[in-house]
């Protein structure tokens, strides 16, 4: 059985967020795509270019950008449950995390973000700071407990507890992939630049190692791209993502007009377990030479 979902994500807003999503206006399109998906043939295996939409990228960013840049994971605090990170303390300012198009910010101030606050649970004022600049790792997520590990004298305000009785510890802020500036390609231009690829929309399955370096991701809907044209819908799709290789092949990022914010339903960490609700934003991204395989369900 194949499905097609309309996911509007999450935001710290009221009913106006539901109205703005225009779910009734999208129902006919989603229903038609569900029918097409039910008859779609598997994509097949091989190396292909990927055009990843913001609704899909939220989960990928969450798993292979946000988690590995949590400083408590890097120093081993979460090794017994949530895992560690492929990043080391010596990598700060040196690690080539992605291509020159790859720019990541942490932002506890983004309006409507699921992790947006005025102050964290240590009383540190919310802020925005750079994590990756032009492909180089330049910052990490810190709080008062961990900032000293990288020689910083002030916390980045990432302490959070989901209940008064729980211990407050480092939780991720909103992590956003910045839109490209002047001259950014449109979605149509990125499609036209793909000879053999797949457009991926929406979230799906994922599997990731404990260091957040070797992962596999699915999605909700997939379209074949052949010789610069978006053609048929395909099915049974996953791709492999070796973190630095994957982002190193980032070849295009859409402009500000294509940027979207997507909230996450939850993120488990700690023992006893606590849940945090972050947001991840991006524009559509073109990533070259990714290994694609079939995921039969």
Short description:
This protein has 297 residues and is α+β, with helices and mostly antiparallel strands.
Helices, strands, pairings?
Layout: H1 15-20, H2 23-39, E1 41-42, E2 46-52, H3 54-66, H4 71-74, E3 104-107, E4 128-133, E5 136-137, E6 159-160, E7 169-170, E8 174-177, H5 187-192, E9 196-201, E10 206-208, E11 214-217, E12 221-226, E13 229-235, E14 238-242, H6 243-248, E15 250-253, E16 260-263, E17 267-269, E18 274-276, E19 279-282, E20 285-293
Architecture overview:
18% of the residues lie in helices and 29% in strands. With 297 residues, the protein is α+β, with helices and mostly antiparallel strands. The protein has one domain (44-293).
Summed up, the helix count is 6
Distance between the termini: 8 Å
Radius of gyration: 19 Å
| Fraction in helix | 10-25%
Number of domains: 1
Strand content: 25-35%
Q: Could you tell me the number of beta strands?
A: 20
Mean pLDDT: 94
Keywords:
6-stranded mixed β-sheet, 297 residues, 6 helices, 10-stranded mixed β-sheet, alpha+beta, 20 strands
């Amino acid at each position: 059985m194949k499905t097609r979902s309309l996911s509007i994500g999450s935001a710290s807003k009221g009913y106006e967020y539901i109205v703005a999503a225009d779910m009734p206006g999208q129902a006919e399109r989603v229903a038609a795509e569900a029918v097409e998906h039910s008859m779609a043939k598997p994509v097949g295996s091989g190396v292909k270019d990927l055009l990843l939409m913001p609704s899909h990228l939220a989960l990928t960013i969450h798993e292979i950008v946000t988690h590995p840049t949590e400083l408590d994971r890097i120093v081993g605090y979460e090794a017994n449950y949530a895992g560690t990170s492929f990043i080391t303390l010596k990598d700060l300012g040196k690690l080539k995390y992605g291509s020159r198009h790859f720019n990541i910010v942490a932002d506890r101030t983004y309006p409507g973000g699921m992790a947006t606050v005025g102050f964290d649970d240590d009383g540190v004022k919310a802020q925005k700071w750079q994590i990756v600049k032009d492909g180089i790792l330049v910052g990490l997520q810190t709080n008062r407990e961990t900032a000293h590990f990288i020689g910083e004298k002030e916390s980045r305000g990432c302490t959070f507890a989901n209940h008064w009785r729980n211990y407050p510890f480092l939780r991720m802020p909103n992590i956003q992939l910045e839109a490209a500036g002047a001259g950014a390609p449109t979605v149509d231009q990125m499609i036209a630049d793909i000879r053999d690829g797949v457009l991926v929309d929406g979230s799906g399955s994922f599997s990731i190692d404990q260091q957040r370096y070797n992962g596999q991701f699915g999605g909700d809907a997939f379209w074949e791209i052949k010789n610069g044209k978006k053609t048929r819908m395909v099915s049974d799709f996953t791709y492999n993502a070796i973190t630095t290789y994957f982002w190193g092949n980032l070849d295009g990022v859409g402009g500000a007009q294509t940027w979207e914010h997507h909230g996450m339903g939850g993120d488990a960490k700690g023992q006893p377990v606590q849940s945090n609700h972050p947001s991840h934003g991006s524009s559509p991204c073109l990533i070259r030479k990714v290994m694609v395989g079939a995921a039969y369900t």
